[in-house]
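input
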Amino acid sequence: MFQLSQDEVREFSQAPFWFWNDELNEEEISRQLDEFQAHGVHAFVIHPRAGLPESLAWMSIRLLDYMRFAIEEAKQRNMWVILYDEGMYPSGSSAGQVVAENPDFACRGWVAIDLTTASPESEIQGVKIDAQSQVHLDPTQTLVAEVDRRHDGHRLVIVDQPIHTTIRGLHFTEQDPPRRQDQREVDECHPLAADLLNPDAMICFINKVYQRYYDEFAEYFGTTIQAIFTDEPSLLGKHDRPPGWIVRPGTRDALIHINRFLQYDFTPYLPTLWDDQEPEAEKYRADYNRAIKARLEETYYEPISAWCRKHDVKLTGHPDASDDIGILRHFDLPGQDLVLRYVEPGKVTALEGGHSTMGKCASSAMVHLGAKRNSNEFAGAYGHQLTFAEYRWLALWLLIRGCNLLIPHAFYYSVRGPRIDERPRDVGLHSPWWGNYARFSDLTGKICWLNTESQQVCGTAILGLSDFLPWEAAKVCFQHQHDFNYLTIEDLLKRVEQAEDGLRIAGMTYRLLIVESVVMDQLSEEERNLIADIEAQGRVLWWKGSEETDDFLKHLRYMDPTPFVFTPSSLDLRIRYVYKGSIAYLLLFNEGEGEIRTRLSLEDSSLVGNGVLINMDTGEEEPWHSNTSLHLSPHGCAVLTLPIATHLGRV
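output
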């Protein structure tokens, strides 16, 4: 079986969220690090979490001293560390410190007031209406626009104002609350959320967190400290918005930037953000979403990314949505977030819906950005009922899609009292499977190594948008062992070279581009013309719906033949095929609940000799040659290794 060196074992370790959620002490930190390493875990994310005492406040000297101790311990043990950029989540507020610095930095949003139906001398969503039904704004509020709704002529006033939203807090409101019988989470403090669209507020955030980390730990940046994790920055914070308010992301100057991005005046279409009956509401809402995310990139992701690169540390973490692939260009370690049972074994969610795209979202971004790694936080809030079989399946669901840095959610420092119920379950030291965790660490580390700095053998791309990835054609590709990456229209316009042998980007050459109408419908005229040009070269395959799957597969196999055939085929079999060094590796995973028995024949002329089939759970090896039978138990994982005669350009 292929073996990793000790340096590789450490490099490709899992890096779990380590929930610091109780009173800390150096002896316990050291003991838990011993446990990590004894079970094959050589990295961690320091994640201050609900349950910390107030004496360990966010960015306090005392908390930073414990971080320093853990970082120094990691250095001595040849471990590596990722810092977390928020006092709980979502990121961007520094546990309320940004708003404390300047109240004008508080989170803002837009509300719509229907003046046609508003009662005189009333207050609607914080906006006062006088006796003549005129709007009166206070000094904290700004008029965005007055505009007539197109479908009924009603006069709307769009107002920008503080929305008093918060993020999750680090400290319980009771000093030592009991565990509830119904396992509900206990009340916690509620730090005020910051305005992520305000560049000055985000400079304040960077200074409060990123620069503070550097001032404290500069000697470890780029070595022991390898990355900083930013967690699903949300334009509207996490909770506690006033009841009854229907708020859309926005701030004082947001409309200017929306118009600049869209290159047309969005003002007449503002009502679409609140009213489905407006003409082409879905189209204009999509335009707004892309524009507001583009502004978030300018105010949040770009400055943080630039700061990280200047200070020799990688930016990792993930955006707010599972298919926000465009934002990942700002990450050195692009990532995503598999939580809240978004995806489950034996459920259609594994292949259907927006969350089913997240694995390929992050790995495709890695490939096309030329990054070395991509990460995925996973298994968070799957509940106390999460089993090891499910946990392992989630990891393999990600790994077969190209993930090569797993961030388990989470290893709990403490499970005292209600801490055990905070986004459960603990998948580390306090889990029933901890005794055998080293074997799981070995499995995931080897596949992460396999997915890193290897040449993916893949000639198919599926067209996506910066903030939307389709899943229907992807489902069919997965079920018929046809690997692919997502390619955005933005990359197609700006970075892809149209060559005689296909569409070239970042070392990949795609012979085929799959296009779904749900994406095509959102393209501009320029973008549609580009797709027409590619189609004229015979490189576009249209997805026309599941009723035409057989015809789709016929053309798929003709336009981009794969180097292997499974007989009989199995809808549950997933594959990833890569070249690494002088070896070809075919990773196989049974994503389903039943056994798979099939025969595999290879038709790759760059391969010579017989191979070795390795059971990734047991390490058992058996010789393999073309047309040998394969058996995969439910959720079984194997790797077929074959020597490469010549490094022919199959990709």
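quick obs: The first helix runs from residue 6 to 11.
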